[in-house]
Structures are given as structure tokens and as C-alpha cells.
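Catalogue entry: protein

Sequence with per-residue C-alpha cells
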Amino acid sequence: MKVRVSLPRWFLIAAGLVVLPTGAAPAQQPDSLPVVTLDQAVERSLERSPALAQASQSVDNAATGRRTAYGAFLPSLSASSGASLRSQDRFDPGTDRIVSGSTDSYTAGLSASYDVFTGGKRFADLDRSRADLLAAEARREEQRFQVSLQTKQLFFTALRQGELLEVARSRLRQAEESMDMTRRQARAGLATASDTLRARLEMINARQAVLQAETGTRSARFSLGRQIGEARPVVPMAPAGLTPMPLALSDSAILALAEEGSPSVRAFQAATGAAAAAYSSARTGYLPTLRVSSGYNWANEAASFGGGSASWSLSMSGSYPIFNGFQREATIARADEARVVTRLQEEDARLAARQEADAALRTVATATAAIDIAGEAVRVAEEDLRVVRERYRVGVATVLDVVT
């Protein structure tokens, strides 16, 4: 008598997986890759960061603007010289005749001018340049923190992916041990073909998980290498002392420190001062300006310093734009609007700093609790695995319990 057994679809799929190749692609050995510590990674990323270099360039530009604002308090000087040579006989357009005589001329001059009064514009521009420099320095510091934070995130991501790779390999070792155990049980007549196929399917899935973990690890290490200027993956060296430690400050002190010491807040605070100075500078358009000018000129018909004629001049001029097509009013209105916007941005930056600091504190607390929970879960899982394997060995549990 023949008995026909209808096998479920999952059993047929598992049987088909038996013919799949089980060898995993060899991964590049970490020994052939450069190894960096956390401090080395941060230092190298700061040296080659394009964003930080651009922020440093902004600081240099702001320093140049401040030097220009100081230069506005100094007089302007200029020198000029010239020479003109003509023939002995020349045409005089005034008389329509040919006249004779030397027409060679050599001239030189020196002139200077100084703005005596500009309505306070120079002082306002000086204050604005000082605020712009402070804002640029704060943004550079903020960019430095951002690069350091990004590097540390990439470093610990690569470190975490390496540990997840070890987890996947541990799962593969567990699956191989389960496979060996089911084979021994099958030879002793205590296991079925279904148990062997289930164990083999778990081993194949574990090998696939290893391949995925190797891909994720290489990608994370490549990202870290790019961050520090390497054209290949970089292996992070785990720093010592990763055990969670209590914070030295209270939550309220950290929030206050984040608000007052945040480079973003200091940048917007300086931008508010620059906008206020720009508004004061725009209002000087309603005041007159006074300028003193002086010059000394020399002329001679021969290329010689002897002889010739000299003259000097001294003048003072003033100007006041009575009406310039509402340009002053438009400039003042734009400066006032910019001042309001920057003040609101500063207030929002303060709130954002406190919010981000509070979120970071909550993340730290959650991660600390998760570490303890994960450690307890590992101990429970190890004991569960030991108990289930022993129960399977004596025939009480199934291989599905072991795989689970």
C-alpha cells in the first residue's frame, strides 16, 4: 500500500533552496585596510573639509571688510604724471594757422581728500563690519562642530556595522551548529527530513545576512574614508571607555549652556547687530557730507626738474541730496525689515538650540537604558538557546523552536 503525502508549499521551496550555492563571497580582510582612531578621523576631516574651508574664507572676507571700514577714516591719496611730445610746427585750431614753438610738456601732481563729516556712516559701517566678522567666526565654529559631529557619526556607524557583521557571523555559526545537530539527530532517527531542511534554510538565510552585513560594513567604512580623505574603506578602532557615564551638568544647566554657547545663536546675535548697524548707516542719508581736498601740481616744457611751474589748491565741499527718487526711503525700509527678520531668526535659533539639546539629552537617556536592556536580552537569549537545544536533543522541542 502506497501512502501519498501532500507537502506544503514552504516545504517544497525549502527543498529547492538545497541546490543553491552556499559559499559566501570572500570579503576583504580588515588587515589590508587602514585603521584610524576617533581623534585621528576628526583631525583629518577638519583639515580637508570643503565646508570648513569655505567658512574660513568667509572669515577672511569679513576681516578684509573690517579693514576697509577702518580705511574709511583715513584720507585718500593719489599721484599722477604725464608727458606730451609734439612737432616744432603745429596747427593751431584756434587761429587755423601753422605756428612754431616748443609744445612739449611734462606734468606731475599729488592730490589728497578727506571726508570730514559723513553723518556717522563710517562709524555705522565700522560697527557692521565688526558684527559681520563675529558672525563669520561663529559660523566657522559652527561648521567645525558640524564636521566633527558628522565624522563621529560616520565613525560610530562604521563601528556599529562592523559589530553587526559579527552578529551576522555569530548567527551563521549558530545555524551551522543547528545544522550539525539536526544531522546527528536524523542519523539517530530522532529528526525528520523537515528538521534538516528547516536547519539548512536557516543556514542559507544566515549566510545571506552575512553578505548583507558585509555590504553595509564596507559602505559605512567607505563613507568614513571619504570623510577623512581616503579613497578606500577605513576601519575604525573602537575607543576605550564606551561605558555610559553620568553627565557632569544638570539638564537645566545644559539647556542654558546650549542656548548661550551655541555658535548658531552667536552667529545670529552678531547678524542682528550687523543689521542694526546697517539700519543706522542707511539713516545717514538724511545728513549732509563734507569733504576737504588738496592738491599740488607741477608742469614743465622740458624733461627736467629744474624750472617749470608749480601750483597748489585747497578746497572744501559739501553735498546734501534733497531728493533722489525715494532711494533713501527704500534703503531705510529694507534695512529696517532686515533688522526685524534677523532679530526673529536670533530668537528662533535660541529656541532651536534648547530643543536640540533637550532632544540630545533624551536620546542619551534612551540609549543608556537600551544598553542595559540589550545586555539583559543577550543573557536571556543565550539561556533560551541552551535550554531549547537541550530539549531538542531529548526530543521535546522541534527544530523550529531552535531556529526561533
User: Anything to note?
Assistant: Confidence is low (pLDDT under 50) at residues 1-30.
